[in-house]
Design a protein that fits this description.
alpha+beta; Protein Yojf, Chain: A; Trna Endonuclease, Chain: A, domain 1; 4 domains; seven-stranded antiparallel sheet; six-stranded mixed sheet; 12 helices; globular
């Protein structure tokens, strides 16, 4: 039910009070939400609802704040949520919400409240750092049309005919480094929208602890396209300007490449002799055995363990069971079964990796078909949903391939992260001494970068982000046919931010 802030609603103070008391009594974890402020939990001893002289006052407090508001009407009421119409200065109306935090459907509202709180912190930061600039716009609302996330508040600053985009990563952001992708999209959007203003660059605010990767990414953006400034903030909102030239050490490791133990290798060779089995050598001295990208066995110490859930050592008495598993996976993981079978649709990136490994020269005729390494160097952040491959060209120059079977807005900059790590180890001459590319004398030039995905599954913002990448990064997009599981074909190749004419 929804009430307007009419004179009748204002006079029915007793009804409003009864509705509030009823809501609080029914709530398991009541709290008060005011836009731009932190959620205030309500307990028996920290709030008062007072009806005096025809006025209804709600007061609540905790150690950090004391809130007093006059309630003049009820707004929308849902399960676990009650909107209150309040009177602000000059008799203007405002809104408060009583919410039951115990209800899952209120979590999105709580997240929105947290974002609004951080938006105000972001506003204060901009006022301190850019006192001579006018804050024209600041928002935490989603903009699906332009691929802008509500998790990263964005702003537009103006001084005369000069403009500046700004974006921040709040404490709730799962990956603070993702702010840069959205920041570049926001910068491009403002340049297209504000035709009469020269939007010079981007300001990025990141939490302390995420600043290292932010600086490393900024190092490989084109300053002629995006004059970027970055700051790191602490929990008490002290902010420090970052210098992209001060990279420090990358969080990366290049393990020594070793083959499995002879006892395990013997079983690998025997199982690999079965039809449809592919073997991928891993840098941790293990061998991964797969059927169209889905791993069903891996070496461990001196054994080969097989199974999709619980794994068992391969031995003579159960070898026929291994063969049946392989045959079953081969029947299920066929292009026609992708929509019907769970195992067929599992790990699409791994299936794409399998196809690309087997037909590497179709992707790029200049590449050697082997060796090809996966996730080397090791990625400290764990699973990223993107497959990293490292190959070598016939000219002995390294090439990084990033594979993605579905749309991913962050693909360009995540690929840049991996490219930086390969470049780091290459400059230090670490690949050959650690067992990679045996017999090949690698060239010292920076590696090439190939982004490989079905042509229709490149995110629409990929070109937007790539226009800001430094010319030092030689990047190429390779678009595949939608039926790549059946027959791999390359539909287009574009360098950098190039697109269809």
């Amino acid at each position: 039910m929804r009430f307007a802030a009419s004179a009748a609603a204002v006079r029915d103070v007793g009804g409003i009070q009864a509705a509030i008391e009823r809501f609080l009594k029914a709530s398991h974890q009541p709290a008060l939400l005011e836009p731009g402020e932190e959620l205030l939990d309500l307990t028996t001893g920290n709030y008062v609802l007072e009806h005096r002289n025809g006025r209804l006052t709600f007061q609540a407090w905790n150690e950090a704040r004391n809130l007093v508001r006059r309630v003049i009407a009820l707004g929308e009421e849902r399960h676990g949520r009650l909107e209150l119409v309040i009177e602000r200065f000059a008799r203007k109306e405002g809104r408060l919400w009583l919410v039951d935090r115990a209800r899952p459907d209120n979590q999105e509202m709580e997240r929105r409240g947290t974002r609004l709180v951080f938006r105000e912190r972001f506003r204060r930061f901009l006022a301190r750092q850019y006192p001579d600039w006018k804050l024209v716009e600041i928002s935490t609302e989603a903009d699906l049309e332009h691929s802008l996330s509500p998790a990263f508040p964005r702003a537009f600053l103006r001084r005369g005919q000069a403009g500046r985009a700004a974006i921040a990563a709040g404490p709730e952001a799962a990956d603070a480094t993702g702010a840069l992708s959205f920041g570049l999209i926001w910068l491009d959007h403002l340049r297209r929208r504000e035709r009469r203003v020269a939007v010079e660059g981007l300001t990025l605010l990141a939490p302390l602890g995420a600043e290292s990767l932010v600086c490393q990414r900024l190092r490989y953006l084109d300053p002629a396209r995006a004059a970027c400034e970055a700051f790191a903030y602490s929990p008490d909102d002290a902010a420090a300007r970052l210098d992209p030239r001060d990279l420090g050490n990358l969080d990366t490791e290049l393990p020594v490449f070793r083959r499995p133990a002879p006892e395990a290798q013997a079983w690998v060779e025997r199982v690999a002799g079965l039809e449809h089995v592919e073997t991928v050598a891993m840098s941790d001295r293990s061998a991964s055995l797969r059927v169209r990208g889905l791993e069903f066995a891996r070496t461990s110490e001196r054994e080969l363990l097989f199974g999709l859930h619980q794994r068992t050592p391969v031995q003579e008495h159960n070898f026929s069971e291994v063969a049946r598993l392989v045959d079953s996976l081969a029947r299920l993981r066929t292009p026609g079964c992708v929509r019907q079978a769970t195992l067929a649709s599992r790990s699409p990136e791994a299936w794409l990796e399998s196809v690309v490994r087997a037909q590497l020269t179709t992707i790029d005729a200049s590449l050697l078909p082997s060796p090809v390494y996966g996730q080397v160097p090791a990625w400290a952040g764990g699973q990223r949903g993107i497959i990293d491959l490292l190959a070598c060209g016939r000219d002995r120059r390294l090439t990084v391939l990033e594979l993605k079977a579905s749309q991913d807005l962050h693909l360009p900059l995540q690929a840049l992260d991996y490219w930086m790590r390969v470049k780091w180890h290459l400059e230090r001459g670490e690949f050959t001494p650690r067992g990679y590319f045996p017999g090949l004398e690698l060239r010292p030039e920076s590696p090439r970068l190939l982004l490989v995905s079905p042509a229709l599954d490149f995110h629409p913002t990929t070109e937007t982000i790539l226009q800001f990448v430094s010319p030092e990064v030689e990047v190429e997009r390779v678009g595949l046919n939608s039926q790549w599981r059946e027959k791999l074909e390359v539909m287009f190749r574009y360098r950098g931010a190039e697109g269809p004419a």
